[in-house]
């Protein structure tokens, strides 16, 4: 998008365009700094995924080997999707016409950036499912939709030509369809909130109702100590009380030589070597989603190659967790979630 904005315009404006390009590039780099910091903290690489750092190459690769035929097929499928923006193809066709006059450079740059950015995300994630792709390109599409709507509103206020007004009408129809398509979910959410207020319901919301169990598990660990958490709702933890490392995707990334997944003793020894004494986890046979053994067993033979490649890593991690649960002292255990001391053997069975 920045490159396109720098290219469009009269030659006399070239110095100003270069100045704007440098300014925009600097602001973009500043916005990416938090990502770079997190990438370095997790992967020891400022430029993940360009440089993988300590990302496990055996984990379902970000760019798995796929034929260009397969990549083009996924690209066409994603381009034909109407989620999350209805009638997006109409906006794509209308934007170049809107860019003829007042909003030539920004609209054209947004149009080119959205098309090439979305295409790149799809082509380099050929094994990702359509839902994941839509999540990754959502920001590009929304920014493009807003830019097109702004250009249309300005043109509608100043244009009198029939052809120009036809383009504006197309944009307004597309935006109206977007609002209409989301009326149902919006009304449902509002009605639920109003019903809760009218009923004077003082019971805690579902997430808050689950927080006491997470708090009890965390209370089993001394304040200030590090915790490795592999629980389904880690956002309910008190991150001020303890330093928490989240095992979001077991085996995907970890400090060298990498988290071993072939046995509980190897896992426990590795974690202790990283200065982690306390491990909180959901039991894989009791978890509902991310850490559910049944869930990943189904995905191992499912239709998505990406998840078929990932499932064995999760299942190996779950086996290691089961072994740790049996061999280490439990500080907390409610049948769904447990906390163990990795440095202490399990209490003898009486």
Overview of the structural elements:
The protein is of the alpha/beta class and 350 residues long. It folds into three domains: 7-50, no CATH class; 63-189; 206-345, Rossmann fold (3-Layer(aba) Sandwich), CATH 3.40.50. It has twelve helices and five strands. It has a five-stranded mixed beta sheet with strand order 2-1-3-5-4. A hairpin with a 3-residue loop joins strand 4 and strand 5 (337-345). Helix 4 (88-98) packs antiparallel against helix 7 (162-181) and helix 6 (130-158) crosses helix 7 (162-181).
Q: Treating each run of at least 4 consecutive H or I residues as one helix, how many helices?
A: 12
Strand order of the largest sheet: 2-1-3-5-4
Q: What are the low-pLDDT stretches, counting only 5+ consecutive residues below 50?
A: none
Distance between the termini: 68 Å
* Computed CA radius of gyration, to the nearest angstrom: 26 Å
Count of folded domains: 3
SSE ordering:
HHHHHHHHHEEHEHHEE
Q: Could you give the count of β-strands?
A: 5
CATH class of the largest domain: Alpha Beta
Shape descriptor:
globular
What's the CATH topology label of the largest domain? Rossmann fold
Largest sheet: 5 strands, mixed
Architecture per CATH nomenclature, i.e. the level-2 architecture of the largest domain: 3-Layer(aba) Sandwich
Beta-strand proportion: 5-15%
* Percent helix range: 55-70%
What class, by secondary structure content? Answer: alpha/beta
Oligomeric category:
single chain
Overall pLDDT confidence:
83
């Amino acid at each position: 998008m920045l490159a396109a904005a720098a290219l469009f315009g009269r030659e006399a404006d070239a110095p100003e365009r270069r100045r704007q390009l440098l300014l925009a590039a600097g602001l973009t780099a500043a916005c990416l700094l938090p990502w770079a910091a997190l990438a370095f903290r997790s992967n020891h690489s400022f430029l993940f995924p360009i440089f993988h750092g300590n990302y496990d190459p055996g984990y379902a690769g970000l760019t798995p080997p796929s034929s260009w035929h397969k990549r083009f097929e996924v690209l066409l499928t994603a381009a034909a999707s109407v989620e999350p923006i209805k009638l997006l193809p109409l906006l794509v066709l209308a934007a170049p016409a809107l860019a003829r006059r007042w909003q030539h450079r920004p609209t054209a740059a947004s149009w080119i950036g959205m098309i090439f950015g979305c295409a790149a995300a799809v082509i380099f994630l050929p094994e990702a499912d359509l839902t994941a792709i839509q999540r990754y390109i959502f920001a590009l599409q929304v920014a493009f939709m807003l830019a097109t709507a702004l250009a249309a509103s300005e043109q509608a206020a100043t244009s009198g030509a029939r052809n120009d007004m036809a383009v504006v009408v197309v944009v307004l129809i597309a935006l109206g369809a977007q609002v209409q398509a989301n009326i149902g979910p919006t009304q449902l959410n509002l009605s639920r909130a109003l019903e809760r207020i009218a009923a004077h319901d003082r019971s805690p919301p579902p997430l808050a109702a689950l927080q006491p169990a997470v708090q009890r598990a965390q209370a089993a660990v001394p304040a200030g100590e590090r915790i490795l958490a592999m629980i389904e709702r880690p956002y309910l933890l008190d991150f001020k009380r303890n330093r928490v490392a989240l095992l979001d995707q077991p085996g995907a990334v970890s400090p060298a030589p990498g988290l071993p997944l072939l046995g509980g003793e190897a896992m426990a020894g590795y974690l202790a070597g990283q200065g982690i004494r306390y491990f909180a986890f959901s039991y894989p046979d009791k978890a509902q989603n991310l850490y559910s053994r049944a869930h990943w067993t189904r995905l191992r033979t499912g239709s998505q190659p990406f998840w078929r490649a990932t499932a064995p890593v999760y299942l190996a991690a779950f086996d290691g967790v089961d072994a740790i649960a049996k061999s280490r002292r439990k500080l907390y255990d409610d049948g769904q979630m447990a906390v163990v001391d990795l440095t202490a053997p399990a209490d003898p069975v009486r």
